Amino acid sequence: MESFVFYIFAFMVVAGGWVVIYSNNLIYSAFSLLFTFVGLAGLYGLLMADFIAATQILIYAGGVLILLLFGIMLTARKTSIEITQSNLPRLPGAIISSLIFLLLMVVIFSEPNWNSATNPGVKETVPVIGKLLMTKYLIPFELASILLLAALIGSVFIARREDS
Amino acid sequence: MLTDIAIIITKIMIVIGGTFTAVAYLILAERKVAGFVQERYGPNRVGIWGLLQPIADGVKTMLKEDITPAKANRIIYHLAPAMVLAPALVTFAVVPFGSGIDAFGRHIAFQIADINIGILFIFAITSIGVYGVVLGGWSSNNKYSLLGGVRSSAQMISYELALGLSVVGILLLTGSLRLNDIVEAQIGMWNVFRQPVAFMIFLVAVFAETNRLPFDLAESEQELIAGYHIEYSGFKYSMFMLGEYSNIITASALIVTLFFGGWTVPFIDVTKLGHLGAFLSVVSFAVKTGFFLFLYLWVRWTLPRFRYDQLMHLGWKILLPLALLNLLFTAAWITYV
Amino acid sequence: MPDLKTEEMVVQMGPQHPATHGVLRLEITTDGEIVKKIDPHIGYLHRCFEKHCEVLNYHQIIPFVDRCDYLAAMNNEHGYVMAVEKLLDIELPPRVEYIRVIMSELNRIASHLVALGTFGLDIGAITPFLFTFRDREKILDLFEMTSGARLLYNYIWIGGVAFDLPNGFVEKCFEFIDYFLPKLKEYDDLLSYNKIFIARTAKVAIIPPAVAIEWGITGPNLRASGVDWDLRRDEPYSIYDKFDWDVIVADGRVGVLGDSWSRYYVRVLEMEQSANIVKQALEGLPSDENVKSAVPRKVKTKEGSVFFRSENPRGELGFYIISDGSDIPHRLKMRSPAFCNLSAISDIGEGLLISDLVALLGSIDIVLGEIDR
Question: Which chain C residues are Cβ-neighbours of B222 within 8 angstroms?
């Protein structure tokens, strides 16, 4: 049962990612990214990381991707040119992604006790995450907030300048 | 194991069937309330008091020609109505609609899935609902529907912020994201009395989230004709409508759950009354939800529509700061009082 | 990215669009939601009214006049008939004048009710529309009682009216006035002073008085810009000088002079004045006379031309008739108020949001039948 569900989500992630890369139509790429995100959220859910799963959908699918789609939709219609994408620099892409994969593998296997469906470490993740964010990881958390705030102000500034 | 699966399937069927029936009769109620407000009869030809009207409507939309515009993006055009309807139905999965009963040697909660992050789950799923609107508007290849799609998605994203922030105050009070915990924390004292400002913000934001008057800019008839679903006909159109009305039901249920004690009954502890208590709790939940459904209809037939920039102004410059202030105040209250 | 700039989008608003009140087509160039340029296209309802008039005799033209402004048919008939009577020098029995004024003012109320209702609909308020139509229905009942028709009456004839008032009309009409005046408060509660409605219409699409005069805007739209001008008072025709009533001029009480809200509210107040006129006319109605005594069997005009203008619910309705002495006009020109009012939108509408353009269009209250003729 567990593995069956896992394969469904894994298929969603991989198939979605495949379309993202290989589709010529940018809209399809962006749209299938949605399936990747939802599949990932499902995988997080299987790993008992329910908080991450929900925020994954809330932020990536509900926020970031919508803005991407927005940009594509408005520009593609306005210039009446079908925006297409190509993936020419394949070799550097392959090298970079395999390096990242290796790095991730090293991190994963150097940490022995992961939570899993059969071995849920924490029952409720939210209080734990909240406490960690406010104590151990307070500085990275605050730094990230400041970075986001700076980005927000910067984007508003750029948008305003074009007006005048 | 088998009993568990049977129970879950029964619950899903009850909720989905209940939602669809409620949607059908909500549409009838909308037309009846409209008739009442406007001093006319409303539908009264099909069945007594027009009670069979939803069936007639359903049959009608199914038999209508299903038109696809010539230059529409076919795949997305066909997918969009489903993407509106599915999230609208899924959200109800975590809403507790009663206290639950003891049967078959176990406790059966009146809720499909009692998950720890209930409220986050709801926000996550509603944020997916934007896709159907955006993609439906875009793929129809119509300028008006594109404008409608863009408008409504911007609106939904903007109001999600105020919506989420207004709830955080309640989460602070309850200390849990589980909807059942939130409901049980309200026995004796509804959240609306503890968090009146949050309630007002939530109410306004939820109207905007569901694209209803006075925030129905996405489909504002006089400007965009019908907005994002302008090119849809037949059953695809009615799927958009089903999605819209299921959203309204979910929104009302959510208002009740978060602010009006959910399934609790004032002055009676239903959890100690066995099956009668379970029945009472469901009735209490239904009555409260019904009231907010009526509020939706009432407002729709009374108020005019905002302009787009006024809507954004309200969302970003009034509701959002107000929600933040409310959060700050609540946090200070919990810490120091 | 210096060469990436936002492009303008051309949107066709109409001829089948709910906010254009008929078959008007606006070709708008928009930048986002801001209207950059408006190109109005009219003529979808053109029926060669003026050409038809050159082959029909004076009596036969009346039903055609009805169909120009189909929401204010009585006012149109009244204007046309008075133009012909000016050409013929006909003395009218006083009862006829009273009946005509009652009918015209009732029709003015009916027409303003449609204007208010559809304007509310344009702003997104659905219920006021049904409320105004509920009240308009009562006026149409009165018309039906009198002329047999509910929309296009062919009631006011040259030299008289088609039928005398039926039994019970006066009582029913008093009843209507008593019913109607309190209803104005209901519109105020439901729509006029609604916060959202004010936010949508006040200070939106302003027509300053100078601009209004320049474009030849007349009627409630002109008075909404603060210009104190009403033909019924300033160039009194028929028996309007016998009644005690006020010309409503906007004071910009929630926004500024000449905004959409003023155009709306001038109509609300005008309905009250019209109801007052009807009431006075009913009270002063002369007793039975033959209402057809002055109707000429065959219209024999002298050679020459005549221009006559009257106050229609939408503004100044003018008829210019050139006669060659026969019973068929040589040439008839109609100055239709809605046409002149509409012509200003390409000037006023630039730089508005699309939603504000809808508010502008709804507030100037056009009838395409009269614009296209």
Answer: 18-19, 121-124, 358, 362
